[in-house]
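To whoever picks this up:

The parser on our side crashed when reading a file containing two proteins. I've narrowed it down to the boundary between the first structure block and the second sequence. Both blocks are reproduced below exactly, byte for byte. First block:
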Amino acid sequence: MSQTTLCSAHLPGFSRRRPIGPTSTPCTLPADHRGEHIGRAGERWPNVAVPVRSLNDPDLDFLMEFRALSRRLDALYASQAAGNDSVLLRDRARRLEALLSAMQGFPEAMAS
């Protein structure tokens, strides 16, 4: 009997869930399968290829920094929507907006 290597891909967001229950089991199909993944409990999810990048990749560093700044700006917007409309909060949001604009290729935004 030959031994088949399994795919072992997990549902998207697996690392943010508790590792208990049927959604914590990996894909049970062979490693070279095409199409969607199928878990032990019968759940299905799309086969999305994620490129492997080095930890020293400058593009990855840029993307991680951009996402972190975007999350901080989203939190400031949520705080403003909740009624906190202080001058300090508006200044922080304006500075983050300018920084994100500069990161997207518009350095003149930093001048304001």
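<<boundary where parser fails>>
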Amino acid sequence: MKINNKKMYTFSFILFILTLSIIWVMNTNILNQSKQVSKAVENPIHKYNFIYSHPFKKNSYLISTDNGNDFKETKLNFSDIFSIQNSQLEEKNLLLFPTHENKYYQLDDSGKLNVHNVNDPLTFYFKNKLLSIQSLNTTVDNNLLKVIDNEYNKKYSIELPSYLDKSTFNKDYIIVITNKINDITSLLHVINRKSGKLQKSVELTSPAVDLIFYNNQILITTEKSLSIISLNDFKVREVKYPLQEIMVDKIAIHKDKIFISYGNLVDGSANLLLLNSKYKVLDDIPLNVPYSASKFRNNKFYVLSQFELDEDEKFGGQLNEVDLSTLEIEKTINLPKKEIKVQDFEVFN
């Protein structure tokens, strides 16, 4: 059968125009959403902030409170937000990250919403006055790490294998974790800030979850062990967890003690594993609350419990605040119930 090229070109042109129109409408809607959100609620950000979102629902909600009793709700006209974090540049600014879009949102305390478009989906992002670290998921096999380092007058990009998942830094190094897709190992990449070059890549035997600098070493919580990497020779030492049926999450240092948060896979409860500076286990503290997500902030540990949307359930979730000095829960916040689940939180001290 002979193809009519003229008809084919006409159809392609119409399809091209339709595609441009759809993109324009979507961008216009996003801008309109920004205006609507900015008018919706003044001062939407408080000490405790929670994002409720779902990929297939039209709206997300920011629920915030200072005392855990009175809540303010900000309706956001976009969906698929599963991560929020505080901006390091401005006081009381929140960054909201969608899972499947090439953008992120910045909400300030006046209610103004800014949309920041990026070339590819972000896997993580950090920015303060001296350093910007941005990871873009360019293909299935590659991530592009973009760094602007004002302290050393460096600006560079490094292509690394997917999936760049976590990052941290100190005055000498930027550390990036690659969790290989469909693999059971991770790679730790060490970037020298003074040269702006990749200095070393170290293979880990288990997928990495979180990382922190401590005593000229890098501590990495992996699924199976605490990995300790010396910054002198980059050799890896592993300390096995006392339990294996656990879902390890965050790591923090407080008064020269190491805290590792985890969820018990048997009953779903939150726990804190406490180690000394020689990586010996001192205590395993059950918190007796369900584990969904957690964060360490300013000598406190916060654990979020996501509740199912059952008719009999009164609340949408719960946040418990633990003092790392006393290891006691000193505050519990019961969250309002919505038609979608709470996904993440951020705390301003």
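After patching the parser it read the second block fine. Residues 241-349 form one domain. The radius of gyration is 22 Å.
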